[in-house]
Amino acid sequence: KNNSSHIIPSAEVKPYLKDQFLSRRITDLDLLTLSALPHGIDQQEWIATN
């Protein structure tokens, strides 16, 4: 492995790093609602995909 090479980060603009998204947060209540197991979905499948 060549340790002298440097990896240059992508110059691509990442929308999720914009200030409008970084200044907001999910409240505890929203997090519980968003992560709740939907009716009829297998718990193991839900955990594996979320």
Plain-language structure description:
There is one protein chain. This protein is mainly alpha-helical. Helices cover 38% and strands 0% of the residues. The protein contains 3 helices and no strands. The chain has helices at 19-22, 28-35, 43-49. The longest helix has 8 residues, at 28-35.
Key words describing this protein structure:
3 helices, mainly alpha, 38% helix, flat, 50 residues
How would you sum up this structure in a few lines?
The protein has 50 residues and is mainly α.
**Average pLDDT score:** 78
The number of helices is 3
Question: How does the major sheet shape up?
Answer: none
Q: What structural category do the secondary elements indicate?
A: mainly alpha
> Helix and strand string, N-terminal first?
HHH
Low-confidence stretches: none
Rounded to an integer in angstroms, the radius of gyration calculated over CA atoms is 19 Å
Strands, total number: 0
Helix content: 25-40%
